[in-house]
Amino acid sequence: MIAAPDRTPLSRDFFDRPVLDVAPDLLGRVLVRRTPDGPIELRLTEVEAYDGANDPGSHAYRGRTARNSVMFGQPGHVYVYFTYGMWHCMNLVCGEEGRASGVLLRAGEITEGAELARERRLSARNDKELAKGPARLATALGVDRSLNGTDACAGPDSPLTVLQGTPTPADQVRNGPRTGVSGPGGVHPWRFWIPNDPTVSPYRPHTPRRRT
DNA sequence: TATAGGATTCTCT
DNA sequence: GAGAATCCTATAC
């Protein structure tokens, strides 16, 4: 018998730790997105760590800007950015305030509100693809820049909360190179996932884009 | 099934 | 003006 996931929100202290401790510990946790149409819940299966100013792959590497200012704030908040002209991706800020570390949420399994997620992800061929990839995850949950800076530890009044869920034992977590990160930052094996989970996104090395 | 290339707009240099 | 923590579709095999 598998114990039901713990529905207690994660505390600020959970996120106020080194990003490489927080990232693997997020696997199996439950993200709750409350929308006017109803809640959507997602069990995290894949994340990536970004270590602020020390990490060439991080948006915060070149210092604080208007775009990344949330990353420099209090841990436990949500950093949402817009990329490639059409997609949003979301991070959870962690580590001490000012360090600008964060965990990119790359993939997960929709465990509640799949109908609402399907309406947003019409191109998904099956439910495993609803949140298979960081931009797909944000799309399925209806996350955009309006949620940038949301406190994910605030409890049921917040549009976005992370619950204790069912943490994945450390010896069952796999790690490897981060996806799509160019330059020296790409070498860090800071991508963490639950092995053999069908919702984990395929690894894609960084490919430079050409303009026409 | 694998791979290549286009889409589209924000952000920073 | 260049590049971006990506995704989707068409094409080739």
TrEMBL record:
Keywords: DNA damage, DNA repair, Glycosidase, Hydrolase. GO terms for biological process: base-excision repair. The keyword DNA damage applies. Its EC number is 3.2.2.-. Gene3D superfamilies: Methylpurine-DNA glycosylase (MPG) (3.10.300.10). One of its GO terms (molecular function) is DNA binding. It holds the Pfam family Pur_DNA_glyco. It comes from the Bacteria. Residues 166-187 are annotated as: Disordered. Belongs to the DNA glycosylase MPG family. This is Putative 3-methyladenine DNA glycosylase. It comes from Streptomyces tabacisoli.
